[in-house]
Amino acid sequence: MSATEPEGLPEPLPEPAVGELRLETVLGALSDPLRLRIVRKLLLESEAFDHSCGWFGLDRPKSSLTHHFKALREAGITRQRQYGLERRSHVRVTDLDTRFPGLLDLVAAWTPPDKP
After folding, report:
1. Distance between CA 103 and CA 23 in Å, rounded?
2. Is residue 8 a part of any domain in this protein?
3. How far apart are CA 21 and CA 76, in angstroms?
4. Does residue 43 lie within any of the structural domains?
């Protein structure tokens, strides 16, 4: 599920440290169906290390997507890096598995409803 971090990446945007990850915050962020879909897609379909918003193919306003990606980062679920004007994300698999073993397996096994 996790990709090896390539060399020469930009520094991550501010995020909670592993020891600061809180289950209620992570579950709160994952309680939104769109955010749950984003994390699941990253876990199951990711081929590259970081992905831009466009990779997800979500038909939502940019401001809405920005909000959702920020919520995932601030909860400690994803790590984001700034590449010029674009932010790219990936799941903090090792960190989350350390704090909450099995949680990401549940997210990956979740079957989303037909409608987003």
Report:
1. 10
2. no
3. 6
4. yes
